[in-house]
Hints:
The chain is an alpha/beta fold and 505 residues long. The protein has helices at 39-42, 44-54, 82-92, 122-129, 144-148, 161-169, 202-214, 228-233, 244-256, 280-284, 294-297, 313-317, 320-325, 368-375, 380-384, 397-401, 409-426, 440-443, 451-464, 468-484, 492-500; strands at 2-11, 14-25, 30-34, 64-70, 104-106, 109-110, 116-117, 136-140, 154-158, 218-221, 271-272, 285-286, 291-292, 302-305, 327-331, 336-340, 344-349, 388-391.
Amino acid sequence: MSTRCFSAAVLGIEARLVEVEVDIHGRSPKFLIVGLPDAAIRESRDRVRTALFNSGYSFPTERRVVVNLAPANLRKVGPVYDLAIALGILAAEDRIPRERLAGLLILGELALDGRVRPIRGTLAVALRVERTDLARMLLPAANAGEAAICPGIQAHPVETLAAAAAFLRGTHPIEPIEVQSGGHLLGPPDEVPDLADVRGQPTALRALEIAAAGAHHLLLCGPPGAGKTMLAQRLPGILPPLTLEEALEATVVHSVAGLTRGRALVSARPFRAPHHSISMAGLLGGGSVARPGEVSLAHRGVLFLDELPEFDRRTLDGLRQPFEDGRVRISRVAYSVSYPSRFTLVAAMNPCRCGNYGVKDSECRCSPPQVAAYRSRISGPLLDRIDLHVEVPRVTYAALSAAANGPDSAEIRRRVVQARELQAGRFPSLSIVTNSSVPMEALRPFCRVDPEGRRLLEASMDRLGLSARAHDRILRTARTIADLADSRHILTIHLAEALQFRGRA
């Protein structure tokens, strides 16, 4: 007796359908799983057997049970096939109607007592199912909200193997869950701190606004306690709300990483702040199963790297590809995956190891070679890709004790949203519309400068020794500054402000 049902394998953020074939025959007691299973799937033999027993079903211990996961040349990873295998065994023994498995995709890990545990990558699978003839999914209750985001998908949540079997027999109806996909995309969460808390630092506040408006990368340099971390933590509060498309992109990555925690949708822009001891695989992604790294978990949000020179230099240089392409490609011997990684970088660093180099009324204990060695831990090519370099001086007592007199996050966010709308209006056919990410050949017609501006840019490039990449990034920043001023053209004052942020901090 044999039967089949469907499950799925997730490779990166892409899902592929997997046909789970179950055959029970003969009198040779054996339980085999074939089709390139990993160790977690091979161990499912014991999970499935015990879960069936504890759910009130017997296991055909006197017969040969063969489970084939097709296609056989696709590597299968993780315990996601437990529920499909168990239901396939029940269908092969005529405990549930086989025809009820038609048009159904089944996902779920089984606990020994028959509970259905949550899995990773549910949204990626649902997006793949949307493009097939399958219309229904049977999956863990904790993941059903993710799948229900996709229109046209009927996501039936199950808590236990017994409930899933009763549903397929028709004795226990399970209504598909419904989720309003865009209902929570209203802006930053309430816990994001407000920029009105910041005292002093007008230059850094202006740089944050420009970074938010054009998704430009930002480097803050200043002594300890000047407020660099405080500023970075407030950047998400001035970013525009996620669009539904952006939220789906971010949710897919978080789902593959197992970080959705029962949420149907990532509703606010991510803010990731890894420690400087992070490995290259942790930052960029990798491992034996090529999981997403911090740059991908920060997709459509903010990546904050505090104490930038303390990061491993090779790890930092790995950021070059995400900066340019907005994606990370991870290659293994048998496969390669690609994760999205379009984020806004905010990096912070001290001027030297002791933190007092160039600080008024403070004594620096570092020698000039030590200062140079500390700063050289950040490569020139990486610095060249950061648009805004900002000095963050120590705040005076007068500024700290003064009442708040600067704009709050809501006011700045309104200006940022207006600037982003201008950028989106220029390129209605593009999905990436921020000035920092639009291809330069498309943005160049909107970056023309007058003769005075060209002379200023030429003199600055000669004096500062700027590269061609720096030239283009200055124009991108100047275009964002003009957008914030609601100016159709880049004026000399916009170009001068962009140049002000270009020198190395």
